[in-house]
Amino acid sequence: MSRKTLNIGLFGFGCVGYGLYQVLEQTKGLKANVKTICVKNKDKKRQIAEEYFTYDKNDILNDPSINVVVELIDDADAAFEIVKEALQKKKAVVTANKKMIAEHFTELLELQRKYEVPLLYEGACCASIPIIRNLEEYYDNDLLESFEGIVNGSTNYILTQTAVKNISYAEALKEAQEKGYAESDPTLDTGGFDAKYKLLILIAHAFGIVVKPWEIFNLGIDNISDVELAYAREKNLKIKLVAQAFKNAKGEVSCFVIPKFVDAQSRLYNVDDVYNGVITKTTFADTHFFLGKGAGAYPTASAVLSDISALTYDYKYEYKKLNQEEELHLNQNVLLKVLLRHRKEDVGIYTVYFEDISESYLNHHSGFIIGTISLDNLKAISGKPYLKHSVILFEPVPEGKKISEPLSLAALS
Ligand SMILES: NC(=O)c1ccc[n+]([C@@H]2O[C@H](COP(=O)([O-])OP(=O)(O)OC[C@H]3O[C@@H](n4cnc5c(N)ncnc54)[C@H](OP(=O)(O)O)[C@@H]3O)[C@@H](O)[C@H]2O)c1
Description:
Blueprint: E1 6-11, H1 15-25, E2 32-38, E3 53-54, H2 58-61, E4 68-71, H3 76-88, E5 92-95, H4 98-103, H5 105-115, E6 119-120, H6 123-126, H7 131-137, E7 144-150, H8 153-164, H9 169-178, H10 187-190, H11 193-207, E8 217-218, H12 226-234, E9 238-247, E10 252-262, E11 275-282, E12 286-293, H13 297-312, E13 329-330, E14 335-343, H14 347-350, E15 354-362, E16 366-374, H15 375-382, E17 389-396
Parallel strand pairs: 1-2, 1-4, 2-3, 4-5, 5-6, 8-10, 10-13
Antiparallel strand pairs: 7-9, 7-11, 9-10, 11-12, 14-16, 14-17, 15-16
Helix pairs in contact: 1-13, 7-11, 8-9
Bound molecules: NADP nicotinamide-adenine-dinucleotide phosphate.
């Protein structure tokens, strides 16, 4: 099969954009060249010749010789406008912008169908890990039961530092910002929103379910205090921000992003720093584990490069599971075994929200409850801004299991 020659219009020349340019320079076999690069700031000094650059998106979008748009900007709203226009002009698109994809998933599906052009986005979920194409292609004939993963590099770096250096969450966040791993406004990452956008994309390819961002519950790591860190240390556990989705016997899928205690038996335990890791569980193959760098110029550019390469042989996502006969639905009616840390004065408030409580602790200023709570009740207390607490998940309670039965930490991993 002869491969197409690609003429690329690149949007963004920051961390990933410049990384991609360098990676393309070193990939001689690929018939792809960057023709024009659109950026925003006219005063910035660029690393390559000025004649590549434009500040007008139409110089790319209206250029008939450009057949591929690679979108690597840091503004999700502007990115959607660019991607929409590119698809309407029948240009194939590669992007790594998870927020943009998650917020416009249905519209992007429609645009791909209507204009019959591919949109690829492997770099959007776990940077260097080829998880989307595996969920889309490999698990087609095997029955995928669940996946769980660490999908956000900067929160994993922060949590690793708290565990390794025995420092507070605030100190670890400051260090991550100084090293450039976390934004000056880090809430997209630390609040679990970035992981939620990635989870939304992954469940579409894993189970064929398309949901809106607000339908997925996300709790971040920004309220974690020394109490939870000390608990984890004492029990030889690590706290990781985990995105997970699992299917029940009725074909219903539950999914959420919640910080989780992970023990040494779990393969997520040693996924540290900016690494990402995903465990998939299938009916016949049992489990698989994907590990790779979850952020950074070259790891992300490598996924973008793989998408560009795939376009040279006309690859597109077929969204097979969206078209499968067995239609799956979201079921967020699940029970979770958690540790909830609260202020001392709030001790009486939380107990009514729990189905059962197996342990509680109180000191001079705070305390915690370990017990079973429904996801609905967790959402309810998280929606009350006057309540200050943090929640760490042990495990979802498997359906049909009696609440009082002890749960194994590794039950789902
Ligand atoms: N960094 C990572 O490790 C990583 C990993 C996975 C996915 N991603 C995703 O990759 C994308 C790029 O991230 P990044 O880290 O490379 O960002 P970045 O370093 O902040 O660079 C952003 C680039 O976008 C350009 N830009 C912003 N608004 C624009 C507009 N309206 N039109 C044209 N250019 C515009 C900027 O132009 P100027 O140069 O003129 O300022 C800059 O070159 C984001 O969607 C991010 O979520 C990043």
